[in-house]
């Protein structure tokens, strides 16, 4: 089974929880893409009716629109019945790192407004602690004096051996999020300790918009592995 086939298995399993008439948060990324496709397929088969989607990025908005899923927004639907989205890391307490696709802000807005948030991953995303994959923990910052923000973020996590980098596109220019902001990717060599304390430290910095740690937001995590699918709940 390829990694993409595992992602699809997890996504399809999550979509079993979608019921007609629901307002569904539609995640972003290569795993969530399968969930969006599956919802559209079931709608076409008449097995799901009256679904309203809330997209977590312009990418997902375009995919859902092209598949005929009716879309709305949080202003119209302040409470979302169910969100389905991928993750970059999942720790044993079901805390997540998200945002390597750059959509963390709108994802966190939608998923924190959801009655239920099902995370879908292949087993490669499981880590012992946040930052443990050695991959980026993204922080969305305003473009104004971004390098000042970078230096202050790096200093916050000096004890964890933190490297901070401005995210750039293939053209070497700063990546710009759907919200017109920049992203600073943080890399940790060591465990950053209490996540809520780390989150407070980051969010207290002026100029910071949001970070990619999703602490205590996931209701359950569907993990597709070569030996089958497991569902982790808190
Ligand atoms: O960028 C994001 O937040 C994505 O949801 C990410 O967390 C998972 O992306 P993937 O499903 O392509 O691995």
UniProtKB/TrEMBL annotation:
Its EC number is 5.3.1.6. The keyword Isomerase applies. It catalyses: aldehydo-D-ribose 5-phosphate = D-ribulose 5-phosphate. GO terms for molecular function: ribose-5-phosphate isomerase activity. Keywords: Isomerase. Transmembrane segments: none annotated. Pathway: Carbohydrate degradation; pentose phosphate pathway; D-ribose 5-phosphate from D-ribulose 5-phosphate (non-oxidative stage): step 1/1. It is an enzyme of class 5 (isomerase). Belongs to the ribose 5-phosphate isomerase family. This is ribose-5-phosphate isomerase. It comes from Salvia divinorum (Maria pastora).
